[in-house]
Amino acid sequence: MKEKCTAVVISQVQLAPGIYDMWLETKLAGSAVPGQFIGVYTKDKSRLLPRPISICEVREDKKALRIVYRVAGAGTEEFAGYKAGDAVEVLGTLGNGFPLEEAEGKKVFLMGGGIGVPPILELAKRMNAEKQIIMGYRDSQTFLREDFEKYGKVYIATEDGSVGTRGNVMHAIAENALEADVIFACGPMPMLRAIKTYAAEHGIKAYISLEEHMACGVGACLGCVVKTKEKDHHSHVNNARICTDGPVFEAGEVEI
Amino acid sequence: MNTEVTLAGVTFKNPVMTASGTFGSGMEYSEFVDLNKLGAVVTKGVANVPWPGNPTPRVAEVYGGMLNAIGLQNPGIDVFMKRDIPFLKQYDTRIIVNVCGKSVEDYLDVVERLGEEAAVAMLEINVSCPNVKEGAIAFGQKADALFNITKEIKKHAKQPVIMKLSPNVTDITEMAKAAEAAGADALSLINTITGMKIDIHRRRFALANKTGGMSGPAIKPVAVRMVYQAAHAVKIPIIGMGGIATAEDAIEFLLAGASAVSIGAMNFVNPYATSEVVDGIEAYMKQYNIEKLTDLIGAVQE
Hints:
The complex is a heterodimer.
Chain A: E1 3-16, E2 19-25, E3 37-40, E4 51-54, E5 57-58, E6 64-70, H1 74-80, E7 87-94, E8 107-113, H2 119-126, E9 130-137, H3 145-149, E10 153-158, E11 165-166, H4 169-175, E12 182-186, H5 189-202, E13 205-209, E14 225-227, E15 239-241, E16 248-250
Parallel strand pairs in A: 8-9, 8-12, 9-10, 10-11, 12-13
Antiparallel strand pairs in A: 1-2, 1-7, 2-6, 3-4, 3-7, 5-6, 13-16, 14-15
Chain B: E1 5-7, E2 10-12, E3 16-18, E4 40-42, E5 59-62, E6 65-68, H1 77-89, E7 94-99, H2 104-115, E8 120-126, H3 143-156, E9 161-164, H4 172-181, E10 186-189, E11 193-196, E12 198-199, E13 204-205, E14 211-215, H5 220-233, E15 238-241, H6 247-256, E16 260-263, H7 266-269, H8 273-287
Parallel strand pairs in B: 3-16, 4-7, 7-8, 8-9, 9-10, 10-15, 15-16
Antiparallel strand pairs in B: 1-2, 5-6, 6-14, 11-14, 12-13
Helix pairs in contact in B: 2-3, 3-4, 4-5, 5-6, 6-8
């Protein structure tokens, strides 16, 4: 059940330049699963649309959600100023989660790149598998690293080579001679394309989380589509809605 | 209190409708809103065959509104008849189907198919989408082209016909009169206003289509003005829309001369907007002791 409701900020800290970590007390946490996202509304009514932000973590008692987001414009800049006790309008929970059952008992790559790192955390927490967590960052600001170390072996790649492998997550796989039966990933499009190619070459499945500019977030506006291999069930034109048919897709199903 | 309105012989329980393209066929928002509460659901545009729409990005936010260039992605009339109509038939609300096409023949195909379906109360003809290259707006920006397609559709339509007008014209009254003269049973306006946004950091257009249709509260004064002008130029009823967020906004359109109103982009912002507008109109009628909603239509005083 989706709804728009008021959440309350429990805490907010800055994790790295431009990267913020906010816990929200909200009933949306009750049904949230890893891979889903929420829409967060600004208080400034000149900015109308909810900002789609992935769920980073769900509190044990299912009464609070953690979002880790990057300031990308005036809307997220407003969010960065929120303090404990502030009320914030949210829409959710949106989209479908990662298929956890596909990982059961297998050797898995959990991959995140940049602001694609946060949604992998709750996934790592809930997954019952041999987890190899591979994270890509620009530089030494390796936010959430300590959180991930609780759930599996962590490999880091940085573009500037300041931590771990110099380069991207694919370089980290090669350098450490890692192997997997299945991949779960979120990150920038070049990373997801590389993962799609890697998965196809190795004959394994990769579940990737996509992003796109959105308006409604609930599947009505048809703003956030991705080209698909097969006909989509909504419009039958090989255009799936990222917000409701995704955001997680098996890489072989989408033309990216 | 009586909130009923009648347009071209079709009675609606209240004047609150959904603007085409912002509400799908009601399925997505039925999780938020009781569709039985609405005067009508106006569907997303449907063509004779599936349309893939435009490349992404298709949407962008602007001050007080948004731009879209979806390009009328739709599954085509076959899927629509099998899936969307039976879904909507479960509810006690009127069904208005928005029809789009690239040629006159495309429109007629869809109009004829819909003629078989008695549950469809009215047809709304989209001759005003700014985001597709062929058809659509080409029929809606010149009075003679609008006259011709309206006349052609009226010959084939079993249901009353609403022509949806574009605001991207020099004189809205000329367009309204042309549609009326060709036999249109009602008008709906305004469709989106063509706009553009440029991302200065990437030095690129915000939309893949470069231009998009602007909607949202920022366009409301333009829409109210055009509804007022059109209402004074024609005798056929008008469905007013453009940036309606609240019951207060809706009442402005009614006072300007609209017989019904549609909520569009604000569904994306507040998924409960349609339901809240229904409640708010009733509260306003109570506050001012208005017995019949129709007493509000065109009731603005000079």
